[in-house]
Amino acid sequence: MLTKEQLFLSACIDEAWSFQGLTLPNPAVGAMIIDKNFNILSIKAHQKAGDAHAEVLALLEAYEALTQQKTNLTDPAQIHEFLSTHHNGLFYDKTIFVTLEPCNHYGKTPPCAKLLSTLKPKQVVIGAQDIWGQSAGGSARLKEAKISTLFLDSKADIKRATDLLYPFMCLKNSHHFNLFKLAMRINGDYKSGIISCEASRIFTHNQRTIATSLIISGNTIRHDSPTLDCRFATYAKHNPNIQILTKDSSLQNLNALRNAPLFAIPNREVLIAHSPNDLILDSGYNIIEGGFGLFASLSHHIDALLIHISPTLAHTQILHSALESIHSYKLEFEILHTTQCDKDTLLWLKPIRS
Amino acid sequence: MLTKEQLFLSACIDEAWSFQGLTLPNPAVGAMIIDKNFNILSIKAHQKAGDAHAEVLALLEAYEALTQQKTNLTDPAQIHEFLSTHHNGLFYDKTIFVTLEPCNHYGKTPPCAKLLSTLKPKQVVIGAQDIWGQSAGGSARLKEAKISTLFLDSKADIKRATDLLYPFMCLKNSHHFNLFKLAMRINGDYKSGIISCEASRIFTHNQRTIATSLIISGNTIRHDSPTLDCRFATYAKHNPNIQILTKDSSLQNLNALRNAPLFAIPNREVLIAHSPNDLILDSGYNIIEGGFGLFASLSHHIDALLIHISPTLAHTQILHSALESIHSYKLEFEILHTTQCDKDTLLWLKPIRS
User: Fold this and answer.
1) Phi and psi (nearest 5°) for B31?
2) Cβ–Cβ gap B4/A333 under 8 Å
3) What are the CMP/dCMP-type deaminase domain coordinates in residue numbering (chains A, B) (predicted)?
4) Which residues of A touch B42 (CB under 8 A)?
5) pTM listed for this prediction
6) pLDDT per residue over B319-329, tens digit each?
7) Domain residues of chain B, as ranges?
8) C-alpha B130, offset from chain centre
9) Which chain A residues are within 8 Å of B7, Cβ to Cβ?
10) CA of A71 to nearest chain B CA: how many angstroms apart?
11) What is the CATH architecture assignment of B175-352?
């Protein structure tokens, strides 16, 4: 039976997934503040590494709602400082839901567990435990401050909270998160014109601003002449480095590629590789944008798939013969989450390795 | 800002979508009972026309949870009678969430508004208004019984509650609900072997037990030799009537079709049509199972699409040239809902007519 804690935490998990892939190398985290009558005062997600954590953003928004006062604060250290000195006991009867145990160290921001120990909410309900050394120990600190903590610990709860951390954990444990990203229509067409809705494209361009590299095939350059910049990004713009996989090493092909518009984008490194082994896939957050041909070439390196499903149809020919080459790869996935992004549905998939 | 009422009602809406297409000609409805501390006592959906309504199932489950007593009741009239005489004031401090205004007439079951007027919960929170004549007036009846009622009435709330009623309203307003159903892999492949997970197949076979007819193409019969029965159904088994669309009216083709296994299924009518105009599409709940060729032929008659997305890949050739014939049809949809059905994701789509 669904519990109220699961329901509130689920809403935090959904909120966090809206920023999945945008917070790396930090985890995606969501948080909510409710009052003693279960009224929701705020629900926020961590949005970008270096920015304030989810629980801090939620606390600030709840503070502003309760005091009817806009602070316009964005700097994490300033928000910590402000809430620590101005809270005036406002949170004593509030409950905080957070998908990941509050951090307990000075990293890019001050420790959330320290702030919560000062604000002394009635209870902190937590999804996943923080097991990553330096930032761990948040709940112990809360207990020392006599704050009640509750970990949701059914198998399904732990799975939902842990799935949310999957990209972060790939990067933490194997030093790479290689994401294959594709936009397609409901008939599988991914080739006819602009497929994604505007919100999807903004999401993709925001991802590009924080990616280590973008990996595409020579075919994509020849057919689409993309600039692969981040012009739609709402995040601080930073054009990604590019890795191009092209089997043809003839001078003619290389010259043609080098005339592609993506080379005209400033402050960017471009690597041309003639074999998957020459690509840098063992470190960083690499986004692979291409068709199932490129997927087949790189399948062993792919940590997750993100499919933007556009609710449209178009007449097109799709040949998936490229997939014939990957017999050794078991082509099954687990759906980690589906997120609505305006008109499109985003499907996050994790390969099941046999 | 998300409210707690929206959050609780959303959970009811999600629960109801799990039975979407299985309740016709009744609407899909979900309901939840919470106690004064917001603990969730039950969450239930209406499952099948003739069975108890969502709020009645939720009340019974809450009663059983509160009294630690199993009733094993399933007959709607018996549940109404039992709760009316045994409630003992248990619901006076409870809140009921229900996605559709409780019915107020004797139809296949006694009126839910009558039962609620007897049980006297503290509050009834409602998604959509019942505007369908004979069953309407439930909330007025609750108010007469001095029960607080709350309609969620933001534009987004009304849309979510109304989207849930879409198949029901198609049937109510235009006398037909023509659902195009397709199972596909994440690369758009819908042709290679068994694609759906077991839970998806049970769902599809349950749908067949209540459908007026199943519509398929002659091609599907020739390639797949399906029986189109409901052997996996958990609902009372009832094999659907079949309508076959085949352009080829030669005696040879007709004889070949008539030898197909689906004709061996007892108690079934089979109609063979050589043009979409010869199909019966203007009344009843018709499920069209086929590829995008059949979709193209019938696109003007299709009220909704249901795509079962299997998180798998397979190498296959898909030719969508059939879609070229439907230039006049604007190939855009609105995603009504995504539902997880074990491993598969179900996408419910509504055509946007230009």
Assistant:
1) -150, 155
2) no
3) 3-140
4) 1
5) 0.94
6) 444 454 444 34
7) 4-171, 175-352
8) 18
9) 7-8, 11, 40
10) 18
11) 3-Layer(aba) Sandwich (3.40)
